[in-house]
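hey team, just a heads up i'm posting the complex here instead of the shared drive bc the drive is being weird again. everything in one block, sequence lines first with there labels, then the predicted structure for the whole assembly after. its three chains so it's a bit long, scroll down
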Amino acid sequence: MAGALNPKPKDWALALPLAAFFTLFFIAPLGLLVAISFETERQMTGTLGLGQYAAFLTDGLNLAVLRDTLLVGAKATLLCLLFGYPLAWLCTRVSARWQAVLIFLVVLPIVTSVVVRTFAWIVILGRHGIVNEAILALGLSAQPLKLLFSETGVVIVLAQVQMPLMVLPLITTLQRIDPNLESASQALGAGAWRTFFKVTLPLSLPGIIAGTILTYTACVTAFVTQSLIGGSRLLFMPMMIFQQAMDLQNWPFAAAVSVIFMVSVLLIVAMLVALSRSRAARLYS
Amino acid sequence: MTFEMSRRGFLASAAAAGLAFAPRGAFAADELVAATFGGTWANVQKQILAPYFVKRTGASVVQSPMLATEQIAKLTAAKGNQPPFDVAMLDEGPALEAIDAGLIAKYDLAKSPNFAALNPKFQGAYGPAITMQAIGIAYNPKTVKTPPTSWDDLWKPEYKGRVGITSLASTLGLAFLLDINRLAGGTEANMEPGFKKLKTLLPNLAAVSANFGAHGALFQQGEIDIGVQNFNFAEELKAKGVPIEFVRVDTGTPAWKTTMHIVAGALKPELAYAYVDSQISPDVQGEMQKSPWNVIPTSSKVPYAGLVAQQIAKTPADLDKMVFFDWAKVNQNRAAWTQQFNRDIRV
Amino acid sequence: MSQSAGHALTLRGISHAFGQVVAANAIDLDIRPGELVSLLGPSGCGKTTLLKIIAGFLRQTSGDVLVDGASISHLPTNRRRIGIVFQNYALFPHMSVAQNIAYGPIAAGRPKAETDAVVSEMLDVVQMAAFRDRLPRELSGGQQQRVALARCLAIRPRILLLDEPFSALDKNLRLDMQIEIKRLQRQSGITTVMVTHDQEEALGMSDRIAVLSRGNLEQFAPPSDIYDRPASLFVNTFVGTANLLRATVAGTSATGAAVRLADGMVIETGRETPLPVGAAVLVAVRPEGMRVSATGGAGAIGAEITAVMPIGPALIYEVALIDGSSVKVVQEREADAPLEGSVFLHFKPNRITGLFPDHSGDTHKKGN
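-- predicted structure starts here --
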């Protein structure tokens, strides 16, 4: 049999079901989406052009929404990193039992429905929510703070909801760092901070970048959290796409907005990947 | 993960198209799939309409809660294939769109004995109106001591940061905007006065809900003390023990019809007709008019009673005094208004 | 090399326990300036624990660590100026060779010019100047070790700790590096403590060896003493190969005890024992401390050859004694063919390494 002599075609064949699945449910719809975005008429008459793209790019509101979406993702990702890094670090320092407890707490948001999580946050952040009741009781403010329907609220909730995506890659990376490296640094006279900034942090950069990519893409596309916590006065790209596709049945425009959004996010991801490639190439063979 | 945004994007096309490919009802020969709205409507139709229909036909029914726009998206995606459901339930504006797009079939009177008993203005050529939805102001009597009487009360300085409305995605928000526009001297062809007026409401707004469901929760959590609300929904919340009171505004109550339709190319047209006809039967409408549902009946055989009679109408003539809008014109401009609304309310 | 003269390191009553497990039990060690001392023992004996305590990675449960008589127990690792070369070298993978070596001087706040000078000097010392801009992963194991050593010496440590320094190297390279490090240590006169489980390494490189077992210090002595006069049965069996012959004490005198072997033969051991006459003892004797021959003589006992292994210059005989126990004998290979069958086993004078009480039921297996 030819296959026995040259096993390569057979190996390749093993990937066929996945490739077929990928093509049917990912490539094809994506192609369809891009195709629809070139329809110039809402009724999709078959007239093709760049009209939808022009319409998006010439309206300052749309560009502002795009900018805000990319920014809110960046803020949430930064917050995620700020809280997630110490948490991940802690996870690698505690006993196995505590590590299991911490990881369970970190992963908890993933196993809860996004809608449930988000409504829980509405209760927490609301005018009469736990946070505001505490602030009023402590006399930190005379008025309840506006956390719900504010960008601050969106950033806080996004950071919490997407925390596992940041923490899990960080834990993996931090666990892979040879503990002797930190010991060596100390023995060479470096204090805890120098050891952290010169050894631990640079070596965990691949995890930071992986976590950042995952968290960022999840944050900018988090339709439910953005719209429920943000309300309609804070408009982000996913809601805008939903509005166009579902409320207004303007699929070509929705498709064009989707493509623009996707390309914007992919550009940012590509930059992060390029960064990680250059670093990882130096760090690991 | 990376492509979640694209998933959102072709939600309307690919995902809905996927539904169209899936063979439906292959196993359940006598199962009807009917669309309903979320919240109150899903509950009332499940508790009253479904058992009635099952008893009448011996068939079963799956009621699938969907926004009107969602129904249209799915039907559009499935066009030319099997529709994902046989009965659509729509508000006036979306209904006109669906008719224009050829998504729903003309209504055959011969298959619906209860149709003739409907008040004539509820007898649509593409399906009956099953109720009227009326809107007004809902408020929390614990925090709002003087009951409001007009939309202008929402503008009172004392309600700074306490008022809630919905976006134009909900007919509630749209009708509110249309009505303040009308009172400010505008028409469906000229919304400038309405938008101008809306802008002055901004300081008072605590929240602009992205959808109707989120809006209801805001009253419950005390996020808003006063705001636009739908009569049925306010009364249902009140029946649940939420501190909420509903008042009609003194400038006329904006209202619209909610209609039911047989989907074009329905798989089970007989069952679909039986289902719609059940919804307009005096028995079902009589039951639905009771608290906590307070669904305004459209059958002339069901006299107004209870809260409907108290709050909305004592005679059919009272309904005529409500404020109606030209939904055909609304549909033409909705996209532009949505963009304008996004722009104006943006923080 | 401008190393400061060696410093004395003292462990005084060091004890450490991990939960119920005692890793170090009242260890006292006085290490002289410039000495190279090995901590030798099987895994779990506590040698790594001691190293961590000296480095400051672990805080001992009790006891004190002193350098030149001054306690350093209260100092954190980074203020002890104790260099350590890890088993896996622990070079910073994201830094070049030069950056690795400069790490310590920079952390100590040395001026750039001084740091550069130290880096160059250290690179020369370990003969790695040509590799200064390489990343650690571009180096061989031996080269990595040289860099690790250079990085360590760059802080001019008072004490140098080597954690299983040669275990990751292949056998040929290992000897070269052992000689190299020994040479560097001699040159610099730096007091060095090396952890190892490899007795040859310890015997070959150390001025003195501390043999540890289950947290206890069994013996602390020069290599020849450890080998020839082990203080305990454990040391005897762990270091080198030991034959243990069952016997009873036949008599004691000023020159040492006489023992009666299994076949009734009485031999002079030249070793003392506190055991009374008639007590069961194990007579420890190394394979090279005996000789087999075809002819008998005074003090020779009968034996049967069960196996012969020629290993280059020598022959290893395995012979069975009358009580069924077997012993190994190493002797020079003669021109004649190896012996076979019934032979006589001779004890070389003064080559019995020890007499140890024979507790029936105890295991007398070799320790490693």
